[in-house]
Design goal:
By secondary structure, the chain is of the alpha/beta class. It contains nine helices and ten strands. The chain binds adenosine-5'-triphosphate (ATP) and magnesium ion.
Length: 296
């Protein structure tokens, strides 16, 4: 059985990757600046579901993703994966950001194989499995290049392969295509769906882009403005595989309009300027107090 099939068997047969967010509140900041970024949020994600989190900037999407990743602690409530409380980061929960985290000095194949190297897998085996994933993300023939020799979209493909090699139970993606041009972004969405059809791991995907959310997801969660709460839970039942024509289908446009209303209503209610920096799912520790101070 190859690496991809092993992974899909893992996800399907064992039914792993179920996330339960139970009455979670997350407070950030210190002293008088302390505030709730996420408030009493409940969200059950079954194994293998593709969920998009949609919401206005600053509503706590990255914070919530960070809590599922294990980089940020819930102040109240619990986050569990397959019934086990999430206590910290683990390769079981692969995280992909807007900007890749590849080692610039390592070839693509070695970047992808790195997770296996950490697990002590032998060189020949890890190269074999890495090559399968490189091919899965459409980069066969580029395995001996360095990250700087690839386009932004190709780098993000490597990033996805780098995370998938760990057979994650969940794939957490924070605006992973946000820095790409529109055409590349569309191609990446199709590639991701193609990969996901084969792997079927649970995906939690954060985006600002309604089209992206509706095109990708089984279910779209719309969050309120800060403190982030659940505003709407919308099932997206369009058949798969999905093609771009879907974006102009009347059913698609109808749900898009519904999402626009929800988000527009949220913006209309929001009067206060947002004084703080955007958060990475790695948690607030990456943002220095100086940066927070400067942006106020
Ligand atoms: N280091 C920090 N300390 C305290 N609060 C922070 C910190 N970083 C971000 N915040 C605030 O926490 C709230 C939630 O931020 P978060 O980054 O989770 O929102 P988001 O929905 O991901 O926004 P965006 O769509 O802009 O990425 C925001 O109001 C933000 O200003
Ligand atoms: Mg964010």
């Amino acid at each position: 059985m190859n690496a991809v099939n092993q992974s899909s068997a893992l996800a399907r047969e064992a039914g792993v990757g179920a996330i339960a967010v139970d009455a979670v509140s997350i407070a950030l900041g210190q002293g008088a600046d302390r505030f709730e970024a996420v408030q009493k949020l409940n969200l059950d994600i079954p194994s293998g579901q593709f969920v998009c989190l949609l919401g206005p900037s600053g509503c706590g999407k990255s914070t919530l993703l960070g809590a599922i990743a294990g980089h940020i602690r819930a102040t109240q409530g619990s986050v569990t994966l397959d019934g086990e409380p999430i206590k910290g980061p683990h390769p079981d929960r692969g995280l992909v950001f807007q900007h890749h985290t590849l080692f610039p000095w390592k070839k693509i194949i070695d970047n992808v194989a790195f997770g296996l190297k950490m697990k002590g897998v032998g060189k020949a085996e890890r190269r074999r499995r890495a090559l399968e994933l490189v091919k899965l993300v459409g980069l066969g023939g580029f395995e001996n290049r360095y990250p700087a020799q690839l386009s932004g979209g190709m780098q993000q493909r490597v990033e996805i392969a780098r995370v998938l090699i760990n057979h994650p139970r969940v794939l957490l993606m924070d605006e992973p295509f946000g820095a790409l041009d529109a055409l590349t972004r569309n191609m990446m969405q199709e590639l991701l769906l193609d990969v996901w059809e084969k792997i079927r791991t649970t995906v939690v995907f954060v985006t600002h882009d309604i089209d992206e959310a509706l095109f990708l997801a089984d279910r779209v969660i719309v969050m309120t403005h800060r403190p982030g709460r659940l505003l709407a839970d919308i099932p997206i039942d369009f058949p798969r595989p999905r093609h771009r024509e879907l974006l102009t289908a009347p059913e698609f446009v109808a749900i898009k309009r519904q999402c626009l209303h929800l988000l527009h209503g949220e913006h209309a209610q929001f009067k206060q300027p947002d004084p703080l920096e955007r958060l990475s799912p790695l948690g607030p520790s990456l943002i220095t107090e100086t940066q927070i101070h400067l942006s106020q």
